[in-house]
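Table S5 (text form). Sequence records supplied for joint modeling of the two-component complex.
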Amino acid sequence: MRVTNQMVFEASRQQIAASREQVFNASQQVTTGERVVHPGDDPGAAGAIIAHSLSVQRFDTIGKAVSAASDEAQLADGALQSASELMTRAQQLAVQMGNDSYSASDRAGAAQEIRDISGQLAALMNTQEAGRYIFGGNADRTPPFDSAGNYSGDTSIRQVEVAPGLLQNASIRADVALKGVGGGVDVFASLASLATSLSSNDGVGVRASVATMSSSVDQISTALTQNGGILDGFQSAMSIGTNSKDAASKLLSAVQDADIFDATSNLTKAQQGLEASLLVASKSFNLSLMDYLK
Amino acid sequence: MADLLALLVQSGNSLGVHSAAVATAGNNVANANTPGYSRQIANLVSNPATMVMGNNAVGTGVGLQSITQARDQFIERQIPNALGAQAASESESSSLQSISALDADLAGGLTSTLGAFYSSMRALAQNPGDAALRQAAVGSSDQLARSFNDTVSSIDLARTGIDAEIQGDVSTINAAASQLSDLNKQIQQSKSASGQPNDLLDKRQNAVDTLARLTGGTPYTNGNGDISLALPGGIALVTDSGAGHLSTVVDAANNGHLSLQLTRADGSGPVALPVTAIGGEVGGYLAARDGAMKTAITSLDQFAFGLATSLNTVHAAGYAPDGTTGRSLFTIPATATGAASQMTVNPSILADPRLLAAATTLPATTGDNRNILAMIATESHPLASGSDPISSLQLIVTGFGNSAEQAKAMADHNGAIATHLTQLRDSTSGVSIDEEMINLTKAQKAYEAVAKVISTANEMLDTLMTLKTP
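The corresponding C-alpha cell record, covering 764 residues in total, follows.
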C-alpha cells in the first residue's frame, strides 16, 4: 500500500485520540469507582441500577420506620410493665386490706395509695413519643386518659410497613387493655371502686375487688404479651430488612461499581497504549527523505 | 548545422517540460495538507522522431502530454455513502450521549427523587400528625414533580439544540449544492477550453463529500461528466439544470421543532421533505431528536401521568385532618401529553401541608396513616402502562440507553468503514513528500542533463563557427 504523509498524520491523530479516550475512560472508572454513568454505557445495568438503588433506599427507609415503631413499642412495653407492677400492688393491697383486722385508718391510707396508683396509671397511659400519645390509637395528639381514667382515644390499631407491601400491627388497644372494651374489666373503675370500699372501710367491698384486681392484672399482662409479639415482629423485620438491604446493596455494587483491580489494570494498559501511540507518531514524523537529501 | 540548431530548440523545449515536472512536484508538495487535493502527475511523452541521414530515425526530445490526477473511481464511488453513514450515526450518537438527565444515579434525577418521595411518605406514615414530616412529604412531592419537569426540559433543550445544528447544516448544504452546480458548469467550460481542470475537479469532489456527509445523498455522474446528487429515497437535490434549496419550517405538530422542506432545482416547491429523505449528519440529528429523545419524552409523559393518576386516586379518597377530601396530590393535564413537563403539586397542598390526606375515614384523626400506607403501596402497583413505577422508570432509561448504545456501535462501525475508505483514497490520491522529493530530484537531474546537451551543442556550434578555410 502506498503510504502518504496525510495518511501518516491522520492515522497518528486517530490513534492518539483513541488512546487518549481509553485513558480518559479508564481514569474515570478509577477515580469515580463507577462502571456505568450514561445509560448508553450499559443499558441493562443502568436499568438494574435504578431498581437496586431504589430497593436499597426502600429497605433503608422501611428499616428506619420499623426502628421508630419498635422504639414506640419498647416505650409501650415499659409503660405496660409499670402498669402491671402498679396493678399487682393494687391487687396486694386489696388482698391485704380485705382482712378485717385492718382498721378504718389503715384502709383510708390504702385508699389513698390506690388513688395514687390510678393517677400513676393514667400518667403511664399518656406516654408520648415524638409528640404522639402512643396509647391513644389514631387520636394521638391529645392525652388519651384523663386523671379519672376516662379514655378519649380511638379504637384504631396503627399499622407499620415492615417489608415492601407487608403491614404489621404496631400498637395495642389501650381501651381494651385498661378500659375493658369488648368484655373486659375497666381497670380505672375497679381501682376507683376499691378506693371507695377502702375509704368507707367496707371489708366486703374490698374483698369483692380482689377478683377485679386479679382480672385487671391479667388484662394488662395480656396487653404486655401482645406488645411483646409486636416487638418480636419488629426485631425480625429489622433483621430481614437489614439482610435484604445488604443483598440489594451488593447487587447494586455488582452492576454499578467498577472492579478496582480491573479498572487500574485497564488504566495502566491504556496509558501504555497512549505512550506507544505517541512514540510511533514521533518516529513516523521524523522519518523523511528530506533529511537525507543534500 | 541545421541539426545542431534543431537540437538547441528541442533542448529548450525539454527544459520547459522538466520545469513543468518540477512545478507539478512543487505543487503537490505545497498541497500535501490541502483537504480533498488529489496529487497531480506530469505525464511526459517522447516527441516523434525525424528521419536524418537516410532512413535513420532520431528522437526529437520530450513533450508534456498532460497533467492528470491520481484518482481511484472504485474507491471514490464508495466514499460518499460511507461518509453519510458515518456522519449520521456519529451525530445521532453524540446527541444521545449528551443527554445526562436520564443517568441512573444523577443527583436530583428521577431515580433519587422517586426514592425520596416514597421515603418521605414512609417517614410520614410513622407519625402523620407531625407538621415537619408533612412538610417534608410535600417537599419531596414537589421535588418529584420538578424532577419530571427538569428531565423533560433538559431533553427538550437538547432537541432545540439539534434544531440549531440542523439550521447550520442546511446553510452549508445549500452553499455546497449551489457550488456543485456551479462547478459542473465551470468544469464543462474549462474542459472545452483547456483540458483537464484538476483544481475544479478537486473542489467539486469536496462539495460532493460535504453534501454526502451532511445529507447522506448519493452522487451520480451523467454522460457529459456532470455530477448530480440525489437525497436518500431518490429526491434530486442537484441536477444537470441546477441546485435545489433546503429550508426549515417550524412544525407545530412536533412541539415547535424544525422540519425540512425542499425547493426543487426547477424552482418548484417548497415541498415537505420526509425524514426518510434525508440522511447523513442531518438525518442522524433528526433520528436522535425525533427518535430516542422524543420517545423518552413521550414515555416520561406517560410515566408522570400514570404515577400522578395512581397517587391522585388514592390521595383523593383520603381525608385531611380538617375532614376535607377529594383533593389530588399532583396537578396534571387531562391527557398524558405534556404531563411530565406540567406536573406540579396541588397548589393548596403545597401552601398548606396539613391538607395532605393521610386518613381514610372520618373523623380524620391525626394518627391515621392508612391513606399514606395506601399511597406507599402504589410503589408496587401497576400503572396504566402495566408496569409499576420503578419498572416504568427502568424501561425508559434502558430503552434510551439501548438507543444510545446502538448509535454508538453504529458510529464506531461506520467510522471504521469511512476511515478505511478514506485511507484507501489517500493512498491513491494523497501526496507523499518523499515521493515528490524523488520526482523533484528526477526532474532536476533531467533538467541539468538537458542543459548539458545545450552546452555540448553550443560547443559544437562554436567549433563549426571557428573553422578556417585552408
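Note: The first strand of chain B starts at residue 40 and ends at 46.
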